[in-house]
Design brief:
This protein has helices at residues 19-31, 48-61, 65-70, 80-84, 111-126, 148-162, 177-199, 222-236; strands at 10-14, 34-41, 71-78, 130-132, 167-169, 211-212, 215-216. The protein is of the alpha/beta class and 239 residues long.
């Protein structure tokens, strides 16, 4: 393996093709000299997010020459086993509702733990020190694997298990969706904000037939409602 950059100046971004991970990618491209991306195919119901990833990557590099120079390889990892053992609304044609556990049926147990483990293994092989992920504890759905404590514990576990110090960066951890739209505009101006709205996909049902002011989606699932409410708050500050 040839590492052309100092590992302290390198990052691997968990990039799904959604709004949050796209903002995290731009955040990383502003900060690190070498950035690679990783996505996961786990049999998700909204597999359209995998289809939009290549065009988001192509269009984001067209926005800034320095982003194009810093963005390296994209990796897609198949995790069929995760989907096979997950009876959830993200991996089955199941109603999105609150389960008896008190968590929404969109919660995929262990998903982010598995994602970070595979990301850590790839980062180890590629000589990348930072792992950037879009977990958020501010306006999330109550997923325990999005909590800051979980991410800190995973950072420790990866470092101990691989005997190499990783830093897991979560730039969205303490901001809501309105602030995420604002951060997108702050990082890349209106062109990047437009890309986030027009090209990314976050709807749990994989609906890209309905275009809203905040982007594509069914408009009814929890992910769509969060974006709609966040965009309304963000837009109200621009009037």
């Amino acid at each position: 393996m040839t590492d052309h950059h100092n590992s302290n100046d390198s990052a691997l971004v968990l990039f799904s093709g959604g709004q949050d991970s796209t903002v995290c990618l731009a955040w990383a491209l502003e900060r690190f000299g070498r950035v690679e991306t990783i996505g996961f195919d786990y049999g998700q119901r909204h597999a359209v997010e995998l289809q939009v990833r290549p065009q988001v990557l192509a269009k984001i590099t067209a926005l800034k020459m320095e982003w194009a120079a810093r963005l390296g390889e994209d990796h897609v990892v198949k995790l069929d086993a995760l989907g096979a053992i997950s009876e959830t609304a993200l991996t089955r044609e199941t109603t999105i509702e609150m389960a008896t556990s008190g968590l929404p049926t969109t919660f995929v147990p262990g998903r982010n733990l598995v994602f970070l483990t595979f990301a850590g293994a790839l980062a180890y092989r590629r000589g990348l020190r930072h792992i950037v992920a879009g977990m958020c504890e501010t306006d999330y759905s109550g997923y325990p694997d999005c909590r800051d404590d979980t991410i800190k514990a995973m950072q420790v576990a990866l470092g101990l298990g691989m005997d190499r110090r990783f830093v897991i960066d979560t730039p969205l951890m303490w901001i809501d969706k309105a602030a995420t739209f604002a951060l997108a505009e702050e990082i890349g101006g209106r062109p990047f904000l437009d890309l986030v709205i027009e090209e990314t996909h976050t709807c749990y049902l994989g609906d890209r037939s309905h275009r809203h002011p905040w982007g594509y989606g069914c408009g009814e699932c929890p992910a769509c409602k969060l974006r709609a409410e966040g965009f309304a708050r963000f837009s109200s500050t621009r009037r």
